[in-house]
Design brief:
- The protein has 407 residues and is of the alpha+beta class.
- It has three domains: 89 residues, Acyl-CoA dehydrogenase/oxidase, N-terminal domain (Butyryl-Coa Dehydrogenase, subunit A, domain 1), CATH 1.10.540; 107 residues, Beta Barrel (Butyryl-CoA Dehydrogenase, subunit A, domain 2), CATH 2.40.110.10; 158 residues, Butyryl-CoA Dehydrogenase, subunit A, domain 3 (Up-down Bundle), CATH 1.20.140.10.
- It is built from twelve helices and ten strands.
- Strands 1-4-5-8 form a four-stranded mixed beta sheet. Strands 2-3-7-6 form a four-stranded antiparallel beta sheet, with no helix packed on it. A two-stranded antiparallel ribbon has the order 9-10.
- Helix 7 runs parallel beside helix 9.
- The structure holds flavin-adenine dinucleotide.
Length: 407
């Protein structure tokens, strides 16, 4: 029997070290900073934690050792990211946060030697941050073939013009991966776009505003590119490969989000149970009530599904197997699980849940973005259904599209 759910000793060891660091260093620091209420105290405290993480050998876990990382595969990363997801800044502290984490993978796999030296190395070293600029205000982000930002090659220089928004982390980033249209007539239309490595201090690259979202300002920026001139070798991943590069980036990056969301959801369930056990009413406590217990059961079952799905999808990626259907199902399921579990936890807290005395309102507002980022729910549902239909038409069964022939 080849299936073995025993975790390898090295995965357990790294998970425990990360858990210990998050529990004893990151979470108490965040609690203290929140209580303190001085926003200026955050930056130095987070920098100090990053140095501590590095000194403890917990740095850039997803990157090769030759770059100063821990060289963990997607499976081990599932456990590391879930631990990080239990705190607000855990992933940033270990230098495996979005969008840098996905950008590092992309640079590692698609970058030329020179691009890796110039962009990947300082990113892994924690010297700088980056951003990924694909979505535009005027066209549907769900259909990147409509991208309007234009890159034209003029005398050995790419000239880029356009407007992007929701470019997470743009303010303060050293460089952006910009997806722009290089051939409007390309066939297939997915080959219309290419990726570019653009230094954010290039003249014409401007952060217009930090978009105020329902979760406040989170450095999700609107940016304009006006006659931004970059050298010919700023082209990243080959002409017409913008779509492929974006998709390749999004597979593992989507899964990394799912892993962190599991950590968030687990924390919400713990808050729900803790509150239900301590809230007296009708001669008992809330946790005695079946209606409340069912919220716990449903959350536990959904989290169990989420964990199995994430581990299986990570296994597929780690072993070089086809993973897109499983990652799409995972992304949809975990994003919606997070939303439901946080909402249930809020409900169990009653008015307290609605107040800012607890984090649940904040968690709920952040959780809502999970159903939009990295592909909206409906986009994943569409792809999943297409794969189910295709599997049935090709093989007479849907098995291949319901979990890589698992059963
Ligand atoms: C917090 C946050 C951070 C983000 N960070 C980044 C980033 O760093 N870089 C970046 O490039 N982008 C980023 N995005 C943008 C994100 O990738 C897009 O919001 C997403 O791809 C959807 O694109 P859109 O917003 O243009 O919605 P649209 O494409 O206009 O779609 C609107 C809605 O239509 C529905 N829909 C879409 N397609 C279908 C379909 N086929 N069938 C049925 N219904 C459909 C969905 O409900 C969708 O929400 C971020 C977004 C958020 C909220």
């Amino acid at each position: 029997m080849a299936i073995d759910f025993t975790l390898p000793a090295d995965v357990l060891e790294v998970r425990d070290r990360v858990r210990d660091f998050m529990t004893h260093e990151v979470a108490p620091t965040e609690d203290r900073l929140r209580e303190d209420g001085d926003p200026r105290a955050w930056r130095p405290a987070l920098s100090e934690l990053r140095e501590k993480a590095r000194a403890n050998g917990l740095w850039a876990p997803h990157m090769p050792r030759s770059y100063g990382g821990m060289e963990l595969g997607p499976l081990a990363m599932a456990f590391v990211s879930a631990e990080c997801g239990r705190t607000q800044y855990g992933a940033y502290i270990l230098n495996c946060h979005a969008p840098d984490e996905g950008n590092m993978h992309t640079l590692l796999h698609w970058g030329s030697d020179d691009q890796r030296e110039r962009y990947l190395k300082p990113l892994v070293d924690g010297e700088c941050r980056s951003c990924f600029a694909m979505t535009e205000p005027e066209v549907a982000g769900s259909d990147p073939t409509g991208i309007q930002t234009r890159a034209i090659l003029e005398d050995g220089v790419w000239v880029i013009n356009g407007r992007k928004w929701f470019t997470s982390g743009a303010r303060g980033a050293r460089f952006a991966i910009v997806i722009a249209r290089t051939d409007p007539d390309a066939d297939p239309p997915q080959a219309r776009n290419s990726a570019f490595l653009v230094d954010c201090d290039t003249p014409g690259f401007e952060v217009v505003r930090d978009i105020k979202t329902m979760a406040g300002r989170g450095n999700h920026a609107e940016i304009s590119l006006t006659d931004v001139r970059v050298p010919e070798d700023a082209l990243f991943g080959g002409l017409g490969n913008g779509h492929r590069l974006g998709q390749a980036r999004l597979g593992p990056a989507r899964l990394a989000h799912c892993m962190r969301w599991i950590g968030n959801a687990e924390r919400a369930l713990e808050m729900m149970v803790d509150r239900a056990l301590r809230r007296p009413l009708h001669g008992g406590v809330l946790a005695d009530k079946q209606g409340i217990q069912w919220k716990m059961s449903e959350s536990a079952m959904e989290l169990y599904q989420a964990k199995l799905m994430v581990i299986h999808a990570a296994y597929l990626i780690e072993n070089g197997m086809e993973f897109r259907q499983e990652v799409a199902m995972c992304k949809h399921h975990v994003a919606n699980t997070l939303w439901r579990v946080v909402d249930r936890a809020l409900q169990v807290h009653g008015a307290l849940g609605y107040s800012q005395d607890v984090d649940l309102g904040d968690m709920l507002r952040h959780a809502r973005a999970a159903r939009l980022v990295d592909g909206a729910d409906e986009v994943h549902l569409t792809r999943i259904a297409e794969n189910v239909i295709e599997a049935f038409q090709e093989t007479g069964t849907t098995r291949g599209a319901t979990g890589a022939d698992l059963l």
